[in-house]
Amino acid sequence: MAHLRPLSILCRSQLPRTVFRSKGAIRHHASIAEQRPSIQVSTRIPRSAHPKPLLQQSSSQSLPHVNCVVRARIPTISGGEMFLHLYENSMDKKEHLAIVFGDSIRSKSLDQQLDKESEMDRMIRGAYKGTLYPGRHTSDMLEDTILGDGLPPLYEDAESAPLVRIHSECYTGETAWSARCDCGEQLDEAANLMSNSEKGGIIIYLRQEGRGIGLAEKLKAYNLQDLGSDTVEANLLLNHPADGRNYDVATAMLADLGQKDIRLLTNNPEKVRAIEGPNREIVVQERVPMVPLAWKTQGGIKSVEVERYLKTKVDKMSHMLTTPIMNHLKL
Ligand SMILES: Nc1nc2c(ncn2[C@@H]2O[C@H](COP(=O)(O)OP(=O)(O)OP(=O)(O)O)[C@@H](O)[C@H]2O)c(=O)[nH]1
């Protein structure tokens, strides 16, 4: 089996004194060593307390079909590794991803034996056990382990269930150093928590840029925000829903990865409800809050824009966050 070292991973803030230029100023991202230990708060979800839907809902009574096309090992810049799974699905043409920490979580669709498939074919698409090396010529997957029993793994308690984060694509926050949102920070934080957890974890990376409205429309929304609208108003002014996302593909991907009971990293009550799927294919046993780093450490993203963004999530999208810093900022 591939050997997974515990790692503290992938933090923009962890890169050695990474410096970004912004409006002529130099912004230092503090290294992880400079940050105070993170506060880990967990919130059990009583069945009766599941939030009512607020935003866009799935109209479908069944999940879309998903198929893991390929899986590959990704050694990371901090020394650990994860397995990137690329999926196709029957709902859209996008390549949604599952970032899997730990080598015990496997995709049923990937592990299936395909018609006339050679052992080399299997290894090339990532359907192998253990580690690839030059000269290896078998996938080491016996017939009975390829298909499995089709049942999700059983966990004795919620703590045993893996951590899951459902992330939506954000080019500006993940790649273009934007301080309008905390999306990049949340991605890093989720990876950190999962890579340091014995149970591993899964980040479902959905290609739903701009809460589903796409990058061009999100950039228009940014201009509207600079003209005085908040994030929800800007979407509505552009004739989009406040949140146009759909989580059915994510639910189907989690089921394909053998999951049933999960611990979900989020503050968004709509996500908790939606990820369970039309027939509770997935059950959120526990919600693990994502507290912005700037609210609990010296690090994290600091800007008037990100505080406004978070305030709107709390005020208009029912996010389960208390807002310690906002009172001190002139928003
Ligand atoms: N339309 C729009 N989308 C934005 C804006 N800022 C960030 N986003 C998008 O919001 C999405 C990120 O939301 P998530 O990180 O999943 O957050 P969430 O669902 O609100 O809740 P959490 O799980 O608690 O983080 C990404 O698709 C971003 O591109 C904005 O100003 N306008």
From TrEMBL:
EC number: 3.5.4.25
GO terms under biological process: riboflavin biosynthetic process
Protein name: GTP cyclohydrolase II
Pathway: Cofactor biosynthesis; riboflavin biosynthesis
Keyword rRNA processing: no
Gene3D superfamilies associated with the record: GTP cyclohydrolase II
GO MF annotation terms: GTP binding; GTP cyclohydrolase II activity
Pfam families recorded: GTP_cyclohydro2
PANTHER family the UniProt entry points to: GTP CYCLOHYDROLASE II-RELATED, GTP CYCLOHYDROLASE-2
Record key words, sorted: GTP-binding, Hydrolase, Nucleotide-binding, Riboflavin biosynthesis
Catalytic activity: GTP + 4 H2O = 2,5-diamino-6-hydroxy-4-(5-phosphoribosylamino)-pyrimidine + formate + 2 phosphate + 3 H(+)
Source domain of life: Eukaryota
Domain GTP cyclohydrolase II intervals: 159-288
Family assignment from sequence similarity: Belongs to the GTP cyclohydrolase II family.
Lineage: Eukaryota, Fungi, Dikarya, Ascomycota, Pezizomycotina
CDD domains named among the record's database cross-references: GTP_cyclohydro2 (cd00641)
